[in-house]
Structure formats: structure tokens, C-alpha cells
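re: ur msg from earlier - yeah i can do the magnesium ion complex, just paste it... oh wait u already did. ok heres what im feeding in:
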Amino acid sequence: MAKATSYFCQSCGHESLAWSGRCAGCGEWNTLVEAPKAPPAQGGGVRRRGGSRLSQRPVALRDVSAPAVERLLTGVDELDRVLGGGVVPGSLILLGGSPGIGKSTLTGMALGNLGAAGHQVLYISGEESTAQVRLRAERLGEAALAVPALAETSLEAVVGTIEAERPDVCVIDSVQTLHAEGMSGGPGTVGQVREAAGRVMEVAKRLGCAVILVGHVTKDGAVAGPRVLEHLVDCVLFFEGERERSFRTLRALKNRFGATSEVGVFEMRSGGLVEVVDPSARFVGEASSAPGSVVLCSMEGTRPLLVEVQALVAPTEIVPPRRVANGIDRNRLAMVIAVLARHGGPSLAGADVFVNVAGGVRVDEPGADLAVALAIASAHRGEPLADAEGRPLACFGEVGLTGELRPVGHADRRLGEALKFGLEPVLCPADDELGPGAQPAPSLRGALRGALGSRGRRVERAA
Ligand code: TYD
Ligand code: MG
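and the outut:
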């Protein structure tokens, strides 16, 4: 008889028939755990003689009925925007984030608002007792206190409760605490997490109840175990930021019902998460006019966002010198440093370089290159990029390996955002659709000259 269990990697979900020390899927060591096999997919249809199935007839897509569903607004505008306009009834949403980032707070607030708007809600906590959940809700206000809550970790009990209560929106905090009876492996293992998500999805789709599964992330930032869940759920949201900092960003990594480029910005305050409606104003207001600081006109999804990029260049004896990047990709930092050395900027072989995007924001786009380069050059020379009145310099653009500046998307919107805050001119790549306020430069060398030269300072000598 075939064996009923397999070995599953806790890191990538790879299934193998025999145990081995190293996962063949992702190469991690000691991650295989024995768990029951995933049940075979059960398709509908009639079985014909010979084993093939007589399936239903395919229908042209235009003839498929798709009733327009009304989305449920969580009342947390940034969350609604990232979701693509609210929660779709019956959808399954995975909300990932490191501990303490505010997942329970965000979901608690959303349920509170949904409940106040007359929807049936349910909060199932597997991590905290209801008394602890209440303490948080007290900080969030009356609406959050009205949310029905249950502390439960048994998957059967959770599914039973959803069936009995039939909520419109249910939060399960977190999916890693659920365990199915009769399954080996502790809560949080791949088998358990997959079983939990599968069973919850089944009941959610059947009852039209939207479920938000809260999930923890592993040390390397992936939604733990739940890598196997990403294809299963309709939407994967990621809540990130640094715990010590107050700003948090909410992004969609996958969204079957909306764009994945939207980003919500929040600030953690004593009364819960507060949406930062105009994050540019916050970041520009905090920008300094000291050497090594520049304002980057970045795009967060469809929204332009001005953020401050700071750099520090310090002489060092350490070989190789340190390159520390906070909020930008480390490899891009290395590339920008190399291009600077070859194309008109300083050579930093004997210096530690630290680059930081202020406010704990992450900008993952090539449009940040120019800002990083200018901040480093300014820090290296000890010369501010700000003008005589202390207004910071704004810029954006991708730096190519040959030292050219390459256009990036939404130049007009980036410019518009800078103009809104009186940041003019904006250093940027030459582009056809540039509006007023732009100071185009064809190359990194030209941009360095424009930034550190024309503002009444030493002209970067063309080497
Ligand atoms: P929490 O939502 O419990 O994080 P997670 O569920 O992601 O682990 O809370 C995150 C932190 O936020 C916690 O350290 C306490 C803090 N906090 C506030 O500062 N203000 C508040 O109003 C609340 C509810 C929490
Ligand atoms: Mg929590």
C-alpha cells in the first residue's frame, strides 16, 4: 500500500518521498518534516469507461455569468486602497508581517469599522487570550471593543464557529497557530498550515465569508511556511517597516482583485495605526539641508511619494569597506558606488558607505539610483545639495552602467509632487514628456555637475 505521508520542506513546501538532510527544492538544511500527503485533486464530471472523464462543456467567457459584487469597506482607507477598493466578499487574504509590526492592530481596526457599518464580523485569535485582545481593542476605541472575539487554535472548532456564526468578514490571527486534529506535525508546519488554509478557504467560499489570515514571516522575510499558501489565497498583503520606527507600509504582493503596486503608509500611535494621508509632506518636512541628504521623487504604486535619502561616507581601514543600505537594495547601492567611481563621482574604495531612506520607508525601484548617487557624492564632499534657503534638492532617475541617466515611469507625476512642495528644479533624466520644473541631465556626470556645481558651489571637474 502506498505510504500516506510525505516529507515537506518547511521553507519552500517542496514534497519528497524520503527524508533527507537537505531540501532538493530550495537547498535549505534540516527543513524536511513528515506530514500527510496532500489529497489528490477531485474534479467533477462523469467517469467514462477506460478511466477518462466526461467533463462539462466549456463556455465562452462572455457567456459566463459574473455578478458584480459589492466590496466591503474596512474604513481604513489605506487598507481599502491596497486591496483595490475594499474586501471582496468570499475572498481569502493573507496578511504577512514580522511580529509587533501591527497586524493584529490593523485587522482589529478593520473589523471594528466593518462591524460599526453593520457587517457581521469575527476575530479568532490563536496567539492571544480574549483578555489580551480586549486590552488592544481598548486602545483602538469603541468600535473595536464591539467585535466578537474567540480564542481558539483547533482548526475543526474554527471552521465550526465560522459555519455557525456566518460572518461577512473573519480574521484568523494567525494561521500558524491552527492545528488540525489527527495530523502529525505541530502548528505552523507546512502540512498544518496548508490544511488549515485549505479548509478555511473551502468554508469561506461556500459561505461567501471573506477571511483574513494573519501570517508570520521567517527571518529572511518570506511569509513563513505560507509560501505554499501564496498561490492558494486571492490576495497577499505584506505589512512592513521597522518596529522601532513609527512608519509602516502595507503592500500587495498578489491581488486577484486589484493592482499590486499600491502602497498604504501608516504611523503607529498610541490609539492604533493612523493613516498617513500625505506622506510626502511628512518626509519633506523632516528632510535636512545637511550634506548627504537629498529628496527622491519616488513612485509607490500609482502614487508619487517624496522621501529623503541620506548618505554617510566615512573613511575606514576595513577591507572590504562596509556598504550598508536601509530602505534600498544592497546590490543597487554597490552598482551606484561603482558607477560613481567610473563616471565623474568619488572613488570610495577606502570608505564605508551608509545609505538610509528616512522614516523606515523602502523604495524598490531603479528610479532611486540618482538620489543615492547624489547623496553619496554630497556626503563625500561634505557639501549640502540644498539651496541657499535650505530647500532640499529633489531628483529621480535610473543610473545606467555606462554612466547615463535613464528615464523612469511617471516622470510627470514625480515632478508634479515635487512642485507641490516648492522643490524646484528637479534633477532628472532627459525625457520627452517632462513638464515645467525639470532640470534634465543626460548623464550622471552632468547631474553631479548640476547638483553640486550650478548651486554656487565648486564645479565637479569633468575627469
Ligand atoms: P500588534 O498589532 O500586536 O502587532 P502584531 O500583531 O503584528 O504582532 O502590535 C504592534 C505594536 O504596536 C505593539 O508593540 C504595541 C504597539 N501599539 C501601539 O503603539 N499603539 C496601539 O494603539 C496599539 C494597539 C499597539
Ligand atoms: Mg498579533
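cool cool. Residues 103-104, 127, 173 surround magnesium ion (ligand 2) (CB under 6 Å). ping me if u need the other ligands too
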